[in-house]
Structure formats: structure tokens, C-alpha cells
Amino acid sequence: MNIDSIKRGIVLDHIKAGRSMDIYKSLHLDELECSVAIIKNVKSNAMGRKDIIKIDDDITIDLDVLGYIDPGITVNIIEDGVIVEKKHLALPQRLVNVIRCKNPRCITSVEPELDQIFRLTDEIRQIYRCVYCDSEKKKK
Amino acid sequence: MRHLIDITDFSVQEIEAILDLGDKMIADPAAYGDCLKGKILATLFFEPSTRTRLSFESAMLSLGGSVLGFSSADSSSAAKGESLTDTIRTVGCYADIIAMRHPKEGAPMAGSFKSTVPIINAGDGGHNHPTQTLTDLMTIRREKGRLNNMVVGLCGDLKFGRTVHSLIGAMSRYEGIEFVLISPPELKVPAYITQGLKDRGIPFTEVETMEEAMPRLDVLYMTRVQRERFFNEADYIRLKDTYILDPDKLRTAKESLSIMHPLPRVNEISVKVDDDPRAVYFKQVRNGRFVRMALIKTLLEA
Questions:
Q1: What does the pLDDT look like over A80-119, one tens digit per residue?
Q2: Mutate which of B105, B115, B197, B198 to test chain A, going by most A C-beta atoms within 10 A?
Q3: Residue span of the structural domain in which B295 resides
């Protein structure tokens, strides 16, 4: 299967197989006017199978969202048909308006204009806590 | 500008400085009677709590300052639908410092983001109550002469008891502290707190009766099983009388034990214990006023 290579844009590589649609939605790629290719179940030496997303424009990507969903993703920035930068992600220390607090006793449940802010409190267990109420959110 | 939202916002050294100032204020209150003249404290109580509000007001008045505020959400513009942050920004134009209680967890933190004056968390739902913790630390230090190397028993509602959560967080920072957590299974300390203790290698045990823990304790911190924290009345009635401290249960306790309680109590400490020299819960109330004086002065001068 051939997908045209892009001249200027972004390639999200090493996406866990099956997660590309989540990322497509979370990054609001459906709202873009440029071409976006989702390539699923690509053979990978390291991962067995992986997904790839190619975006045919130089857009700004929220790396915190991406790092939270899948810190193993590589972000390749393409200019003039060649990779000019490879960004490796990590779990972000702080998440703003990426996930929501589900604690009904939390102030964010009654004050909708507040930013939903979480901080990474346990990197090994991948646990985030709401900065307001300390409720735990374990990364799936 | 500093706020006090969570007790761990302050370092051990900063807490020590506040406790030192509190001790000086107890020793010579007249020396501080005018030090905040012309300053205004706003007490914003979106949830009623007469004694906490009075302790803040008493503290500010004792320093020569003035107070204004409201004592329930019904009498504030929150009843008209104003957002919390708008209320805080508005009150910041009228007062130099705000003490705030709110039924929702994290409300003081949310308020602090947009506040132009220092915010003191005077209790946010079942979450934190750092000025009670300052009071508790001051009481332990005055009674024991130290804050390290002791066995601290916490008894009653350890699940919803915010004073317990804050006190564990604060005492965890001192060396040689061991916790004994005494509660029915339904009211155990939340898992994130015990996980935090495990991660930091702080020893603790969870037991269901006071008797099995009593002989080892240096401090026994009793809490009320609060009706308003239960969704179900039957659960409240079943559990409220389970953990009552009386002279009989104290037979095996150390002579040097300090019995503490954030108050108000219902019946979890028998009145027969009140005259026992180990009962320090009324001293605790007095300490609360002085430590709040020290806190207000510290935050206004920060």
C-alpha cells in the first residue's frame, strides 16, 4: 500500500496499533482542511504493528495531549520532503484541559469556566491528580 | 504573595516560624494587639462553620485588624450565580486577606489563581483544613516539646475527615513518625494517602479497635463521624457510636499520651475524659486562635 509522501507537514509515527482514531479525534484533525492520512496496522520491526498519521500541513500539535495518550509516539516534522526534526514524547508533568475530573465533590463540577488541571504525581504508575481535589486519574 | 491552601504549601521551616510566632503571641498577646491595625480580613464561608469563622475573626481582632464577610452561600452573591473567581476578585478589593470555607474540594485553590490578596483555606469539603493542622501541630509541639519521633494514633472517620488527611501530610515530614490508623473498614483512610506513606517508607498500621493500639500511642487524635459526609442515614447511625473514648479504654494508655480532637465532638469522647490531664482538646482550641494570628500576620507581611 502506498501513501504519497508529504512535502511539508507532520508525521506521527510509532502509534500503538489501533490508537490512531483516538489521536485523530483528540487532536481535532477532523477540523483541518489539509489532507490527513491514517495508516493502520503497518508492519514494524520494533512494535509488530503500528499506526501512522500523516498531516499534509505544518500545524501546531498539542504535544501534551499526544504525550498523554501515547508517550511512545514520534513526531516527525517534514520540510521540503525530508525530516528536519524528530520529537520524542514523554508523559507531560501537567495537563490543562486534556482530561476532566470526575469527582462530584470537586469545585470543577460546579464552576465550568475553571481550567481542568492535572499534575503527574507518579510517573511509574502513570497517575495524575486533579490540582484542585487531588482525585486520581490513572492513565489507561 | 503567599496563600495557604494545603499544609504542604509551607516548608517545615516556614511552619516552625509560624509556630514560634504563635508561642510568642501566647506568651505576650498585648505586644501584638495593634500590629494589624487598618488591615481587613474577609471570612467567606460558603458553608456554615461557626467555630472556625469565630476563631479567624477572634484572631484578626486580637491583632487590631477588622473583619467582614458572610457565613453561608445564601447570603453571598454565589446565590445569584456569581462564579467563585469573580467573588474572590471582588472581595480582594475590599479586604487585605481572605479566609475561605467552601463545600467543594479545591475551591480555595481555584480562588487563589485569580486572587489579588492572600487566601487561607478554612476547609474545602472533605479535602483539606490546613489551619486546623497548624493548630494540631502547635498543640503537639507545645505538649510534647517536639514534632518528631512519636506514634500518632488517628481514630474515627479517617475517610472523610479532612483534618486527618492534612495532619498525616504534615506529620509525615518529620523523622521517626509512625501512624496507627484506627477506623471501621468503611471509614479507612483513602488509598492515595496510604500509598503515599508506603512510597515514602513511613510506617503505619491500620486497626479496627482503639484498645489494640492504645498502649503504644503518644498522641491520640479523635475525630467525629460526621453526618453530613454520609449519603445514607442508616450507615451513619450504625457507625457513629463505634469509636467512643472513655476512661476504661484509657487504662492501658501512656501517662504522657495527648488526647486531641478538632471539635466539635458529639459523643466520641466521653465527658468523663475531660478532666484527665491527658485531654488537651480545649487547649487545642485556644492554640487555634493564636496560630491563626501568627498565620495572618505572616501572610500579610510575606
A1: 989 999 999 999 999 999 999 999 999 999 999 999 999 9
A2: B105
A3: 7-128+286-301
Number of independent structural domains in chain B: 2
Alpha carbons B137 and B146: distance in angstroms, whole number: 9
**Chain A CB contacts of B109 below 8 Å:** 107, 131-132
B129 assigned to active site = yes
Whether residue B124 lies within 8 A of chain A, CB to CB, comes out as yes
Do B119 and B205 lie in one domain? The reply is no
Q: Which fold has domain A94-138?
A: SH3 type barrels. (2.30.30)
Predicted confidence at residue B234, as pLDDT, reads: 84
Q: What does the buried/exposed string (b/e) look like for B64-86 if buried means 16 or more CB atoms within 10 Å of the residue's CB? A: ebebebbbebeebebeeeebbbe
Given the residues B39, B127, B129, B165, the one annotated as active site: B129
pLDDT score at B267: 85
pLDDT of residue B245 exceeding 90: yes
Fold of A9-88: Alpha-Beta Plaits (3.30.70)
Q: Domain residue spans in chain A?
A: 9-88, 94-138
Q: Are A107 and B192 an interchain contact pair (Cβ–Cβ within 8 Å)?
A: no
- Residue B144 and residue B100 share a domain: no
C-alpha cell read off for A57: 500541513
Question: Cα-flanking dihedrals φ and ψ of residue B180, to 5°?
Answer: -120, 115
The pLDDT tens digits of the residues spanning B36-89 come to: 999 999 999 999 888 899 999 999 999 999 999 998 877 776 767 889 999 999
Q: Note whether B157 and B278 are same-domain residues.
A: yes
In the predicted structure, residue B225 carries a pLDDT above the cut 90: no
Q: Return the pLDDT at B39.
A: 98
